[in-house]
């Protein structure tokens, strides 16, 4: 956990994660780059911690979050897995609502 923040209680952590997942679900048109950065930063993970957790190189995470590269589906799944999410497909009409 990023040392710049005061530690949260387990209950507070769960509530933050629930709210974050609801926010992500409400925006199916959100770019993968934005979703990954939002998930990582709002759960207070540093790039180093996220890298260790997922097995994805730090530089790769930084490049994806900055929009310099697009991840493979396998890499995206690795990055989404800790949050209980996976890559998927939605129709255009779903994210235009």
Automatic annotation (TrEMBL):
Residue span(s) of domain HTH cro/C1-type: 36-90
Pfam families, sorted: HTH_3 (PF01381)
Transmembrane regions listed in the UniProt entry: none
CDD domains referenced in this protein's UniProt entry, alphabetically: HTH_XRE
MF terms (GO), sorted A to Z: DNA binding
Top-level division of the source organism's lineage: Bacteria
Name of the protein this chain belongs to: Transcriptional regulator
Organism encoding this protein: Leucothrix pacifica
Organism ancestry: Bacteria, Pseudomonadati, Pseudomonadota, Gammaproteobacteria, Thiotrichales
